[in-house]
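Attaching the record inline, Q. Sequence:
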Amino acid sequence: MKILVTGGLGFIGSHTVVELQDKGFEVVVIDDCSNSSEKVLEGITSITGKMPLFEKIDLKEKSKVEAFFKKYQDIEGVIHFAASKAVGESVEKPLLYYENNIGTLVYLLKELSKKNTSNFIFSSSCTVYGQADKMPISETAPVKPAESPYGNTKQIGEEIIRDTCAVTQGLNAIALRYFNPMGAHPSGHIGELPIGVPQNLVPFITQTGVGLREQLSVFGDDYPTEDGTCIRDYIYVVDLAKAHVQALQRLLEGKNEENYEVFNLGTGKGSSVLEVIHSFERVSGKKLNYKIVDRRPGDVVSAYADTKKANEVLGWKAEYTLDEAMKSAWDWEQKIRG
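Structure, as predicted:
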């Protein structure tokens, strides 16, 4: 069974390709390599023993999307990761985010709508909840006005999928709202490879630990939390990848109750920025050089998942602890700098 993974050379995408191949799926990857590298294909192949099919395509080019689906008419499911994802950058470059995250989604759905049946997994985000009224955040929590253009593209993306599913009988979709992915594959062959300065906390921590960055900036210690720093739900990337396979199988086996469903993916436990730093210090045996600076625009105070629906309806549960995930991230960082 052939599955398309867009953004399949990215951080979460590459780990999902591995899990799909391990379950016997044939995978076709689309990636424009704007925030990834073709070398990731070698890492995937080292783990699974099978090179996925690869098409270097910019999904913003509608004619290339159309040509792809003419070439591959036997695609049974699509997992859509390809998107720009940095909150801070989206505040500075909103149009880039709207073009890259919304236009590409529309082109994919247009092609899928032409098929008799199609199955679509959307990489969404807990950013759709904004600053939620209560913790943990369940799927029934209201979608708040987005705190950033990035968050807004995920809200709009979900609305586009929902509206399309409402009038497209053969289209089945699941939006996976995930919290904060981290870590690397235990094999050490793939992991997070940010180009330039990392926008995510964990790779910035590990790059600082390995000496590539001089110092980590902690954005604000005056939030209304126990230690004054922001709280997030950090989820191990392999756990997250497995959830995508589980969601896809739910659609392929016709177990979905509606043709558009939403699940939160997290551990259900919130960790503050300082707790994540302390986790790194525990697993590495190193003191991290960090300083407290001003708050960053677009950051919510706290966000962690209510995982009941994912656990009970999807049949998925995060297994790894923060320290275990952090150790994999640190091992990966040392390997790629070695």
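Residues 135 and 217 are 26 Å apart (CA to CA). The longest helix spans residues 94-113.

More tomorrow.
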